[in-house]
Amino acid sequence: MASSDPTVRSPRTLTNDMPGRATRTATGRLRVAVPSVAERVADELRLQLAEGALLPGARLTESTIAEDLGVSRNTVREAFAELASERLVVRHPNRGVFVASLEAGDVHDVYTVRRAIEVSALRAGGSPEDVAAVRAAVEEGKRAAAARDEEAAGTANQHFHGAIVALARSPRLNTIMAQVLAEMRLFFHKATVDAQFYQHYVPDNEEICLALESGELDRAADLLLAYLDRSEDNLGEVHGDAADAE
């Protein structure tokens, strides 16, 4: 089981050599927009959420995260504000900042976004290198399933869906998907009382990938759409049952 300690990932310092995004000004000069340190801290925390390293309800401590990432507490506070605007964390007065616990009503909204971006990205296909990244995520999931490592299977499943969106080669879509993947992992924590929850998705991922590799893009997109419908229904039942029990 993943720890609620926000420092479970290997400590690393955020450096200033992150790639920027090049744009041209009105005068035609090239300007490179480099993400702020706070934005990079937010990116790191989103990644930890997406990979299951932070559990719903876990308390996030400014000083611990600042020391772990080699940044100031003010920077961490800015990152928290960004994540709060995305409903990934919540601030409770006099108590601190906590990983959000999403509600059943959020499930449909997130899946609406997933259908819009994942299915369209898959229907358009991608370069051989990008398709290979989808295959790599499938193989990662198969290895995790063979090892009966449910946490690794969950991370592989996240990589699979991230690789599908990356087919579009759109930094904006990748940014949106990073938030969606973080939210999805929060949803899935409640569903993974089933010890093989993520492993159920491995055959579906394989079938979608085979259709993509063979150039059957409409079939791949239709398979993914049906997959997302089933997944939403499953999560809706899990969260609905949990709400009834409370």
SS summary, helix count:
9
Strand content: 5-15%
Q: Secondary-structure element sequence?
A: EEHEHHEEHHHHHH
The CATH topology of the largest domain: Four Helix Bundle (Hemerythrin (Met), subunit A)
What's the name of the CATH homologous superfamily of the largest domain? GntR ligand-binding domain-like
Strand order of the largest sheet: 3-5-4
Task: Bin the helical content.
Answer: 55-70%
Mean pLDDT: 82
The number of distinct β-strands equals 5
| Inertia-based shape | globular
* Helix-strand makeup class: mainly alpha
CATH architecture of the largest domain: Up-down Bundle
User: In CATH, what is the class of the largest domain?
Assistant: Mainly Alpha
Please mark out the parts with pLDDT under 50 across 5 or more consecutive residues, or reply none.
Answer: 1-13, 15-27, 241-246
Tally of structural domains: 2
Task: Give the topology, please.
Layout lengths: L20 E4 L5 E4 L3 H14 L8 E2 L1 H8 L3 H13 L3 E4 L3 E4 L4 H21 L3 H19 L3 H17 L4 H21 L10 H12 L3 H29 L1
Antiparallel strand pairs: 1-2, 3-5, 4-5
Helix pairs in contact: 1-3, 1-7, 2-3, 4-6, 4-7, 4-9, 5-6, 5-8, 6-7, 7-9, 8-9
Task: Describe this protein with a few key phrases.
63% helix, Arc Repressor Mutant, subunit A, 2 domains, disordered C terminus, mainly alpha, Four Helix Bundle (Hemerythrin (Met), subunit A), 246 residues, 9 helices, two-stranded antiparallel ribbon, disordered N terminus
Written description of the protein model:
- The chain is mostly helical and 246 residues long.
- It folds into two domains: 21-99, Winged helix-like DNA-binding domain superfamily/Winged helix DNA-binding domain (Arc Repressor Mutant, subunit A, Orthogonal Bundle); 104-245, Four Helix Bundle (Hemerythrin (Met), subunit A) (Up-down Bundle).
- It is 63% helix and 7% strand.
- The strands form two sheets. The protein has a three-stranded antiparallel beta sheet.
- Helix 1 (37-50) packs across helix 3.
- The longest helix has 29 residues, at 217-245.
